[in-house]
Each structure stands twice: as C-alpha cells, then as structure tokens.
Amino acid sequence: EPEVTQTPSHQVTQMGQEVILRCVPISNHLYFYWYRQILGQKVEFLVSFYNNEISEKSEIFDDQFSVERPDGSNFTLKIRSTKLEDSAMYFCASKGLYEQYFGPGTRLTVT
Amino acid sequence: AQSVAQPEDQVNVAEGNPLTVKCTYSVSGNPYLFWYVQYPNRGLQFLLKYITGDNLVKGSYGFEAEFNKSQTSFHLKKPSALVSDSALYFCAVRHNTNAGKSTFGDGTTLTVKP
User: Fold this and answer.
1) Does pLDDT of A92 surpass 70?
2) Across the interface, do B43 and A48 touch by the CB < 8 Å criterion?
C-alpha cells in the first residue's frame, strides 16, 4: 500500500539555524499539507499546497516558514531561523479523494 | 470556522467491553469527518471517514462511527475492546472542499485494561 514518507525521523538543531524537513507524498495525490504536534498535544494545521502554490496557511505559518515542491516527488518545509518553540513533531500529509494520509513525522528539537 | 471537541481526555474500558470515544464538531455546510489513531511515537493512522450516505460507517480494526447531524456528533465505537486498542484517538473535521485543511480535536487517550 502506498504511503507518505518523511525524512529525517529526528532533527536536532540550534536556535537560529535553518532546517528543511522533507516529505514524499503518495504519488497520485495532488493536495499536500504540513501539520505540527507539540509533544502530546493537539495536531495543528500549518499549510496546504495545491498546484504549486499555497492554498491556505495558519497564523503559525509566518515568514519564517516556507514550502516547496522542488520536483515531481518531494514536498519540503523550511524553517529559516528556528526558535525553541518550533520544537515539535511535524507531519506531512497528502490527500487523494477525501482522507489525508499522514507520514510518520519528523521530530524537530531546537536547542 | 470549523472546530472539533473531544470532551474526554481519557477513556478507560475493560477488555471485551464496548467502547465509545466522543466527538462533536462545528463546520459550515456539509462536513467530512475522520477518525485517526496515534500510537506512541508514531504518526497518525487513518481509521475511518464519513463523507455522505449511511450514518454508520465502518473502518479499520473493527471500529465504527455514527454520524448524527442533529447532534453534530461523530462518536467512535467498537463492540469489544482489545488491549491493543490502547492509543490516542483524534477526531477531525474538514469542510467539503478539495484543498480544505482538517481541524483536529485535542485527542482522547483510550486505555483498555485486561
């Protein structure tokens, strides 16, 4: 069964550094998303992406965040200058007809 | 705006007993409703969805959920709980547009005791 994959599984970075989280969505899906989950808490929407542009973004998704689909398979989330409060689990999702399928997540730890 | 409420942080049931995890939602128009399960240090695993049609939907691992439009609820149920069902459960709602984001509830921790 096709699945969403994410790399790395765990990223440790220092405050102020740039990080890029990578995702490979399911191949025939057209809608892509990033969500985050601060440890043990609610899953929060960050951004949705369709047809090579952002469809919607939340207030969390400020100028420090950007997304890109650099080729036909990858979907990336970049955080330009990480803050301590960016520490969270970041989930990528892609959507077929109705439901979103989530990747296993990247745990980002900012020190 | 759309929102989801999961009124119980924790649900405890004995193995073999029926379980219910509650969810109510708010969304303009017709909702798409979902349940996901999350095991420790893992991603979100899709369980089931309501899009249209029959109010009782069946999903993975013997779970089912009942859509109740008048009560704006979408409770997750299982007739006989297993210890392995112990996990964190999230209800999510999405407006019926293609690119729409999903809004998740706070999650309910289900503990099934042997």
Assistant:
1) yes
2) no
